[in-house]
Write a structure and sequence with these properties.
By secondary structure, the protein is mostly helical. The chain is built from 14 helices and no strands. It is elongated and about 75 Å long.
Length: 323
């Protein structure tokens, strides 16, 4: 079996796995149809809670992005730049692409020097080179998001105390930017900077909400926008919002504690085949060396790796609970 035949078989196995995954998860058209049917039921429901929920969902949907799943982005390059900006680092898209390409070449070259298998080297280099930077960016985004969520209720409480003392909203926002450390103070400072250059408070908050992509800050933005249109006691509204966010954080911690056993089981099941492969490779390298030489075993190994990756992805979705 030559290299071209091996590559065709590998691509066919990968296409079959992707097709099977799409059959399991369902198409985007069917999901959109379900969302429209649910919206119709909410619209014609006699329940007041259902109508309020429908209005809230429409308000959020009006502020959601329509392309590339990242708010404020009109292209994939802008979406990537937005994700890099969410990490809090001064990384650019070009630096990210150069690091990805360099990692692919380095890992592929190292694997080829050890195994001598071009197909395996290309696959390992592509997976590691493209996947590792993506995982690092996700880790940094989640770390900064968690730090923001932990301090955000404190910032709202400080905002409430400023409003109750008679200060205007813009001055209380500036106080929050100066007093609250970490990402909360930095993001509120960007809001103040946008207001100083001529933007309205709603637009400045919405730009920050699009940048962060955090549900808690979206609640805050929608609350201020609705209050400025309808009037009312802003301090009391924000105080209730702070309590809701604290209860939301407590619920997340409870769910994390309750699902810790399932997550540990998923980690063990997902990592066990790779650990066994590494252990056998360490004990008897001649026996496992055929996976780096024989084209049939290379195809089988790549197919098994892709299948395991899909399984790990599905387990990650099953144990990831959204509040």
């Amino acid at each position: 079996m030559d290299f071209l035949q091996t590559l065709i078989i590998t691509l066919a196995i990968f296409a079959m796995l992707v097709f099977g995954y799409l059959l399991i998860t369902g198409s985007g058209a069917s999901k959109a149809q379900k969302r429209r049917m649910q919206a119709v039921r909410y619209r014609h429901s006699e329940s007041l809670d259902a109508k309020v929920d429908a209005q809230f969902k429409r308000a959020i949907a009006a502020r959601k992005p329509k392309t590339y799943k990242v708010a404020g982005s009109g292209s994939r390059a802008e979406a990537l730049a937005m994700r890099l900006n969410r990490t809090g680092k001064s990384w650019t898209v070009n630096q990210y692409l150069y690091a990805t390409i360099g990692l692919i070449v380095a890992v592929a070259g190292l694997t080829f020097s050890l195994s001598g298998a071009p197909l395996l080297s290309l696959g390992v280099g592509a997976v590691v080179g493209a996947g590792l930077p993506h995982l690092v960016v996700n880790y940094l985004i989640n770390k900064r998001t968690n730090a923001f969520i932990n301090k955000f209720p404190d910032g709202i409480e400080l905002l409430v105390r400023g409003l109750r003392s008679g200060l205007p909203v813009t001055e209380t926002l500036q106080i929050v930017s100066q007093e609250v450390p970490g990402p909360v103070g930095f993001e509120f400072k960007t809001v103040i900077d946008r207001i100083k250059v001529g933007k309205t408070m709603e637009d400045a908050l919405q730009d920050t909400a699009d940048k962060l992509g955090i549900a808690e800050f979206n609640f805050f933005t929608i609350t201020l926008a609705i209050q400025r249109e309808t009037g009312g006691n802003l301090a009391e509204t924000l105080s209730n919002l702070a309590n809701v966010l604290r209860l939301r954080a407590q619920m997340k911690l409870k769910i994390r504690a309750m699902s810790s056993e399932s997550k540990a089981s998923a980690y063990i099941v997902g990592s066990l085949p790779f650990l066994v492969f590494g252990a056998i490779m360490f004990i008897n390298p001649e026996y496992m060396s055929q996976f780096f030489i024989d084209d049939r075993l290379i195809v089988a190994g790549l197919g098994a790796g892709v299948w395991m990756g899909i399984g790990v992805f599905m387990m990650a979705k099953m144990i990831n609970f959204e509040i």
